[in-house]
Write a structure and sequence with these properties.
- The chain has helices spanning about 5-15, 30-40, 45-50, 90-105, 170-180, 180-190, 195-205, and strands at about 60-70, 75-80, 115-120, 125-130, 140-145, 165.
- A six-stranded antiparallel beta sheet has the order 1-2-3-4-5-6, with helices on both faces.
- It has a single domain, classed as SMI1/KNR4-like.
- A hairpin with a 2-residue loop joins strand 3 and strand 4.
- The relative contact order is 0.17.
- By secondary structure, it is an alpha+beta fold.
- The chain is globular.
- The protein is built from seven helices and six strands, in the order αααββαββββααα.
Length: about 220
């Protein structure tokens, strides 16, 4: 399945699984993306461009199964995907808010430290695509926890990368949008994973702190 077909499939699965009430097309165009790339000197991978031009993401937090590589296990996690489908100005605002965190945490404000990071969502920290590791088609998803203790994630040149949570964005969407790890989790834990399962998990762990969709 190529990236374009995958993106359509991923959003359809997100809708089928109850996280989107309807599929609302994005307003973003190829021209918008090209102008943004030129202004910010960024080269976005193919999968991100298609994601931005597809549909609006869930307006609420998504709970899903992800693979925790450090502990070699599947775990339940949640994320609030940013809605970046209305106007390119939303991207600038998103980048601005993310980069302000560097000043708040007294991180050196050299742009080259963080210009490789494109934020896509938040949950106790920022989920970003690390464009410095892009192959032109896809790139890793990294996480920077709230609080700014990020020196550990810098390479020998001082460039910030974050904790890698998925080897690429496509895999990340397979987890959250398509539920690709759910069958294995069900087999290991002898449970049935569905929307109601996630709703119960959310209530047990977050009570009413998060914006969780009710059907």
């Amino acid at each position: 399945m190529d990236y374009k077909d995958f993106m359509e499939y991923a959003f359809q699965k997100l809708h089928e699984r109850g996280w989107l009430m309807e599929l609302i097309p994005s307003s973003i165009t190829e021209t918008d993306i090209a102008e943004f790339e030129q202004e910010y000197l960024m080269e976005l991978p193919v999968v991100l461009k298609l994601y931005l031009m597809a549909y609006k993401p869930s307006p609420t937090d998504i709970v899903g199964m992800v693979y925790d590589d450090a502990n070699k296990e599947i775990k339940i996690d949640t994320i609030d995907f940013y809605d970046l489908t209305g106007n390119v100005s939303d991207w600038s605002e998103c980048l601005g808010c993310f980069r302000e965190e560097f000043e708040d945490c007294e991180t050196p404000l050299r742009e080259e430290i963080y210009k490789n990071l494109f934020p896509i969502g938040y949950m106790d920290g920022w989920y970003c695509l690390d464009l410095s590791q892009s192959d032109g088609k896809d790139c890793p998803v990294v996480f920077l926890e709230y609080g700014g203790f990020w020196d550990y994630y810098c390479d020998s040149d001082g460039i910030l990368h974050g904790k890698c949570v998925a080897s690429n964005f496509r895999t990340f969407l397979e987890w959250y949008f398509c539920g690709s790890l759910e069958p294995e989790y069900e087999k290991i834990n002898h449970v049935i994973v569905n929307y109601e399962f996630y709703s119960l998990w959310h209530d047990q762990h977050f009570i009413s702190e998060l914006n969780f969709p009710r059907r």
